[in-house]
Specification:
Blueprint lengths: L13 E6 L2 H10 L3 E3 L8 E4 L4 E6 H7 L16 E4 L3 H13 L3 E8 L5 E6 L5 E6 L4 E2 L5 E2 L3
Pfam family, one: Glyoxalase
InterPro entries: Glyas_Bleomycin-R_OHBP_Dase (IPR029068), Glyas_Fos-R_dOase_dom (IPR004360), VOC_core (IPR037523)
Organism: Bradyrhizobium canariense
Length: 151
């Protein structure tokens, strides 16, 4: 499968979402409590601290051009990607879902017990990007806000 090149160190550093209205999306993610960094970029691009990979926002059409994919038709169906907000307790899951909805998110699926022993619900941001809010067995959330996985 190609030349025997040394493998680079793998890392996921940024997740970028294409958005319709930069100002509204920036306000939404700030209202959820994510801290915006490098705000000198104005409304051209926005970056937020998440406790893990950086969350980026970029105008949908420009992001489509950047990756050389058609901007339309925009998918109304599931896009095969979700973001996750792992929690420590079921009460935290409920509180996060309620808070996100109070800030303009849409409820996709109420929180419920899962068949794998967790507790999960979904909301969508103003552009329809789905977020799972979840407590999952064996995935701990540390004081550093990161998900810690067992070996």
């Amino acid at each position: 499968m190609g030349k025997n090149l040394p493998a680079p160190v793998p890392r996921l550093t940024v997740v970028t979402l294409g958005v319709n209205d930069m100002r509204a999306s920036i306000a939404f993610y700030e209202a959820l409590g994510f801290e915006r960094k490098f705000s000198a970029t104005g409304e051209i691009v926005a970056f937020f601290e998440t406790g893990g990979p950086v969350l980026g926002l970029f105008p949908w059409g420009q992001l489509a051009q950047d990756v050389t994919l058609p901007e339309s038709p925009r998918p109304q169906a599931f896009r095969g990607t979700t973001l996750a907000w792992n929690c420590r307790t079921t009460e935290e899951v409920d509180a996060v879902l309620d808070f996100a909805i109070s800030q303009g998110a849409s409820l996709l699926k109420p929180a419920h017990g899962t068949d794998y022993g967790g507790y999960s619900g979904y909301f969508a941001d103003p552009d329809g990007h789905p977020w799972e809010v979840v407590i999952a067995p064996n995935i701990e959330v540390g004081d550093d806000r990161r998900a810690h996985l067992p070996d």
